Amino acid sequence: MKKMKLVMVGNGMAGVRTLEELLKIAPDLYDITVFGAEPHPNYNRILLSPVLAGEQTLDEIVLNPLSWYADNGITLHLGKKVVSVNRRQRVVTAEDGTTESYDRLLIATGSNPFILPVPGKDLEGVIAYRDIADTNTMIETARTHQHAVVIGGGLLGLEAANGLMLRGMQVTVVHIMPWLMERQLDDVAGKMLQKSLEDRGLKFMIGAQTDALIGDADDGRGGRVKAVRFKDGTEVPADLVVMAAGIRPNVELAEKIGLHCNRGIVVTDTMQTTTDARIYSVGECAAHRGTAYGLVAPLFEQAKVCATHLGEFGIGRYLGSQTSTKLKVTGIDLFSAGDFTGGEGTEEIVLRDPYSSVYKKLVVRDDILIGACLYGDTADGSWYFDMVREKKNVSAIRESLMFGEAHLGDTGHAGNSKASSMPDSAEVCGCNGVKKGTIIKAIREQGLFTLDEVKKCTKASASCGSCTGLVEQILMATAGAGYSAAPKLKAVCGCTDANHQQVRDAIRDNHLLTIPAVYEQLGWRTPNGCASCRPAINYYLISTWPHEALDDPQSRFINERSHANIQKNGTYSVVPRMWAGETNASELRRIADVVDKYQIPTVKVTGGQRIDLLGVRKEDLPAVWKDLGMPSGHAYGKTLRTVKTCVGSEWCRFGTQDSTRMGKELERDLWRMYAPHKVKLAVSGCPRNCAESGIKDVGIIGVDSGWEMYIAGNGGIKTDVAQFFCKVQTHQQVLDVSAAFLQLYREEGWYLERTVHYVARVGIDHVKAKVLDDAANQAALAARLRFSLDGLPDPWFEFDKASVDVRQFEALTV
C-alpha cells in the first residue's frame, strides 16, 4: 500500500517528539519530510543555559542526530524556512523554492522571543535568547566585551545572566515587576532568590522600565549598543543587551495561510486545527482551549495525542495540563504548582528558614491542597503536585504536610531519600511522563547501568534535567554494585563544578582545615558558599581531620545549631539518651519533673525506644538539659540516633544472647559520632528479631554461636532490608566491625547519603574487602573512628567545649 505523506514544519522538541511517538505505533504509515529553519538537528533548547555557562557542549544537547532521521527514512531540510502552504493543492514551499506535497501537515513552529519596542532595539549587540545562534553570539561577545544587561528576570533571563557572569562579564538584570520570576514564585521566594543571586555577583534593577538602547555611533542611533537608558533618565553601560522578556507563539505562517489563530494556532482536543482537519499543530505555537503552553511536559502530552490521531488509531484526547514548575536557577532549586497566591477562603502554611535559604508555602482550601511554592528544598515537589492535580483531601495529614512525604512513614525526625519513598506509580520525570516503575523495569530488563543509558531508554531526565537526582537514586538502588555514575558527577551545589568526591579528595590531599581554604583551593564561585555546600564541607573537614579541623556551628542546620528538633510551631523537641533503651526510676522522675516545671505539653515514646519531650521553648532548652542531667540523644543531627534492643537472654526465655548489654556497649562506643546522614542500630537477642535489626544501618542478631551482622538497612515508607555482612563470636568483634564499617561510611559516604545508598553506590564487595578481608585495615578504621570521638563533648552540658553559642537561647527584648 502506498504510504501517505506527512510534512512537518518546524524541527523542535514538541514536533520531533510527535514523530517519535508516531514511529512507535505506525512506523510504515507515512513518508515523512521535516523542514527546520535552523541549520541544526533537533536539540534540547532547555539545555542552552548549561552550554552558555560552559557546562555542556552543543553536541551534548542534540536529541536526535542526523543519523536518526536517516535511520527512520525521514527527509530533512535544514536551514529552510517554510513561507507558504497551498491548502487546496496541499503543497508546502520553502523560501529557497523547495516544495513538498502532503496528505497531513504538522505545524510545530514554536514561539518567537518578545523584543521590547524601544529605540535602539536593532543595534548590534542586542539579541534575544532563544536558539543556538543566540547562545554562540553571547559566548563570542563575552570574550571581547565587559558589560551585559539582561532585560527580564524570568527563568531564561536569570540563566542568561548567570552564564554571562560565568563567562567573565559584569551583568545587570533589569526586571520591571516587583520581584523575580513573578509567575513561578511569590514575593518572599522571589526576593530570597534575588538575595542569593546578588551574593553570587549579579546586579539587579527591580521595577526599572527601559526607555531606550543607546548606540556608539556619532548620531546616537546606530552602531553597537553601549548603554541602556531608563524612564527615570539613569543609564547603565551595556556592550551586550539580551532580551528575555517573554515569548509569543509563532503563528506567522498559520495566519498567512488562513488558519484560525487566537493566542496561538487554535486546535481541538485531537490537536487538529479548527480550520483544516488535515493540518495539526503542537507545541508553543498551538492554542488549546485558550492556552498556549510554554513548558515541556504539556507539549509532550500534546505530542502523544497528536501521534495517535496521525497514526489513525482515533484514540486519545488532550484535555489541557495541570502544570508545575520545578527548576534549578543557577544552582538554586525552585518549585511551584497550582494557585500558591492564596486569597480569601484559603489557609497558608508557611515555613521559612532564612539562614538555610529554605522557604515553603502550601495553600489549602477546604482541606484540599491547591498550591505550593518551594524555594531551596524541592524534594517533595512531585508529591505536592500529585495532591494538587488529584485534589486529594489532606485533613488527615494536615499536621505533617509541611514536612513532606517521607516524614509520614519515618519514626525519626528526618525523612528518607525521596526516590526510596516514592511508589512505583509515582511520576519521576514530569517532562516526559515517566514513572518510577517504568525506570526500574527498564534498568532490570535492559541491563542499564548509567544515567545516559536510562535517558536514552526511558527519556527520564532527558529534558529539563530537574529530575536527574531522583533518576540517579533509582538507578543506584536498582542496579546496585553495577551502577556506574554519569561521566560528570553532580556538583555539590551551584557554587562550584566540583562534586562531593572531588571536595573530599581535595581536603585530604591538601590537608585543608577550614571552609574558606576549601573554597580557595577549588575556586568556589560564591565567596561564602550556600546552605547546601557549607554543611557538607564542614562535615568533610571534621571527619577527615578530627581534632584539627574545627567544627563551624554556623555551617550546620538549625537543629544541629540548637541541639534540639525544631517543630512546626517554633518550639523544640528534646530526646535524652537512654543507653540501648534502658532507663531507671531516677531518670524517669527527672523527666517528669522537667515536664511539669517547664510545662512541656507532650511526652511521647519514640520508635527508637526513647522518650521525646515535645513543645519546649527555645529559651528553656539549656535549663531543661541541665535539669534532666542526661546525655544528648542526638535525635536532631546527622549522627548516631539510637541502638534499639530487645530484652535478650537476661529476661526473655527465647533469648540466646544478651542484646541489651551488647546494645549499651555499642551505643556508648559510638554515641557522639557524626556521619553523612543519620545512623540507626539495633541488637536482637535471637533470630525472632524483635528489635527489627534487619532494617537498620547496622543490625545485630544473636544466634547460638555468636552474632550475625547486617548493614545498610533502612526503614520508612520504602523499607530497604539490610544485607548480611558477617558472623562473629564476641562482643568485641561486634564493636570493632561496626566501628570499621561506620568509619568507612564516614570517610567515603557523601553528605546526606544514607548507608543504603552508599553501599549501593560502592558495592557490598568493596565494603567487605575494606572491613572484613583486611584485618589490618579493619583495625585502622576502628582506631580512626575512636580517635575522632575521643574527648568530644556533650553539647547539652559542655557548651564552651562544644562551641555552642548560648546567645541563641536568649529571648529577644524590645
Tell me what the structure shows.
By secondary structure, the protein is of the alpha/beta class. It folds into six domains: 4-111 and 249-310, FAD/NAD(P)-binding domain (3-Layer(bba) Sandwich), CATH 3.50.50; 126-245, FAD/NAD(P)-binding domain (3-Layer(bba) Sandwich); 324-403, Enolase-like, domain 1 (2-Layer Sandwich), CATH 3.30.390; 427-482, Arc Repressor Mutant, subunit A; 500-556, no CATH class; 639-793, Sulfite Reductase Hemoprotein, domain 1 (2-Layer Sandwich), CATH 3.30.413.10. Helix content is 30%, strand content 22%. The protein has 25 helices and 38 strands. The protein has a five-stranded parallel β-sheet with strand order 5-2-1-9-21, with no helix packed on it. A hairpin with a 4-residue loop joins strand 28 (427-429) and strand 29 (434-435). Helix 1 packs parallel to helix 8, helix 15 (500-509) packs parallel to helix 17 and helix 21 packs parallel to helix 22. Residues 409-416 have low confidence and may be disordered.
- How much is the average pLDDT? 89
Helix content: 25-40%
Here the CATH topology of the largest domain equals: FAD/NAD(P)-binding domain
List the domain count as a whole number.
Answer: 6
Largest sheet: 5 strands, parallel
Summarize the entry for a quick read:
The chain is of the alpha/beta class and 814 residues long. The chain folds into 6 domains: 4-111 and 249-310, FAD/NAD(P)-binding domain, CATH 3.50.50; 126-245, FAD/NAD(P)-binding domain (3-Layer(bba) Sandwich); 324-403, Enolase-like, domain 1 (2-Layer Sandwich), CATH 3.30.390.30; 427-482, BFD-like [2Fe-2S]-binding domain (Arc Repressor Mutant, subunit A, Orthogonal Bundle); 500-556, no CATH class; 639-793, Sulfite Reductase Hemoprotein, domain 1 (2-Layer Sandwich), CATH 3.30.413. The longest helix is centred in the last third of the chain and has 18 residues, at 731-748.
